[in-house]
Amino acid sequence: MSQQANLVLLLKQKGTGKTMSKSLSIAQCDELSTYLSDPECFIATKTTILMAFLMLDHTNDEASWFAKLQSTYKNLIPKECFFLFDSTIQTPSPILQTCIYKLTRHQSLSHDELEPALSACLEIATPTYMIAAFLEGLRLKEESEEENAFFLTYLWQHAKHTTLEIPLLIDLATAYDGFNRHPNLLLALATLLASIGFPSIIHGCKDVSPKFGITLHKLLLEAKKDPLKSTDSISQCLQDRSIAWGYCDQSLSFSALYALRECRSEMVKRPVLATVEKFLQPFLSCHQNFLVTGYTHPAYRSKTSLLLDRLSHCDGYTFVRGVEGSPFAPLDRRCPIIANISSDVYEGFSSPEDFGFTKCDDFSPDTGITTAQSLSVTLTALKDSRSLAAQWVIYNALMIVNSLKLTDSIDTTKQQLIESIDSGLALSHWNRY
């Protein structure tokens, strides 16, 4: 294992957050000293773990090690990291430097500080290690409601949006780092929804930290489809009733944010960018826009509602505690669901039994699942309505259209979904893309 990989393991242990981090032993602290001075280890990763030591509580052993580091840092860490211990040092980004110091004191940032700081993060000339320290500081402090809202509003305003003359659009907003324990069936879900008259858009990128999982981009490549279709081409697909779904890559909709993938990889930690990038709506309907998303940890339940309530181009949303934090509800248990349609809010639970399906745990977690296997399950779902995969996708489609109040009859819609698969209609929508 490389020195960088070993450093990442220590960062995952210590730098996760104030409630989830685990302390390092004396031996691990000594190891860390070695990695901090190793030129083969990324400076951004070093800066990130140093931020963790500056901001998180220490055991006695850690405190002793860190006190020694602070007195001898010039001999142990790269000069780029010196600014963390000496505020008189000038860095390439004074605004980020000022914000980082404030974050280490666990102080929230104002809009006047956030705007130039986020602008600096999106500039190609800004050093990766400065951006990593800034984003890690925000996460370890815990972003305030105002900070999260600013990130969403700022990034939404700077992202590209294509508006189409279609009756409605469902945005399946999933985390960009993919799945790594279950089949990713969101392509099947988008296709099936499209086949019964609900145009659907999905978006992401090929891979991103921290999971580097099975993404929609990778699935499209596996299926010999183009994940980098142009905006015009995606627009044509969404407007074509015989297709009516599309995938937009972040490299096309927000190239400056896409360019931070390397920084996010080196800092390891999931930053606020991962929280809001899936809500940036690269495509919009002139008439009605609905967003479907998911969350993992209970703390993100209220955070998600607060963020989605700020989207001006959203006529309704629904989100669940889905599989691996996705919008895809599990088949083996009920899950929390929150829906808001024109300020009519519903909070409760969704279960396969609500739509005539039996709970099933046949899709148990599999850390060895491959992209090819995930695609195979996707195609099965679109070909055989009696398959477990199809039942899982149909259940999710019904849950979505019901919670968004897009159907007057669950039974009629369920029959439409089954017939779409059995007739080959759903598969034709897939093949035409």
Which features characterize this protein?
433 residues; alpha/beta; Pyrimidine Nucleoside Phosphorylase, Chain A, domain 2; 2 domains; seven-stranded mixed sheet; two-stranded parallel ribbon; 47% helix
Describe the structure.
- By secondary structure, the chain is of the alpha/beta class.
- It folds into two domains: 3-142, no CATH class; 162-432, Nucleoside phosphorylase/phosphoribosyltransferase catalytic domain (Pyrimidine Nucleoside Phosphorylase, Chain A, domain 2), CATH 3.40.1030.
- The protein is 47% helix and 11% strand.
- It has 20 helices and nine strands.
- The strands form two sheets. A seven-stranded mixed beta sheet has the order 4-3-2-6-7-8-9, with helices on both faces. It has a two-stranded parallel ribbon with strand order 1-5.
- Helix 16 links the parallel strand 6 and strand 7 (316-320).
Task: Give the helices and strands, then pairings.
Layout: H1 3-14, H2 26-36, H3 43-55, H4 60-72, H5 94-104, H6 111-121, H7 128-141, H8 145-158, E1 162-164, E2 168-173, H9 186-195, E3 200-204, H10 216-222, H11 231-239, E4 245-249, H12 250-253, H13 255-258, H14 261-267, H15 272-276, E5 283-285, E6 288-294, H16 299-308, E7 316-320, E8 335-341, E9 344-350, H17 371-383, H18 388-403, H19 410-422, H20 425-432
Parallel strand pairs: 1-5, 2-3, 2-6, 3-4, 6-7
Antiparallel strand pairs: 7-8, 8-9
Helix pairs in contact: 1-2, 1-3, 2-4, 3-7, 5-7, 6-8, 7-14, 9-17, 9-18, 9-20, 17-18, 18-19
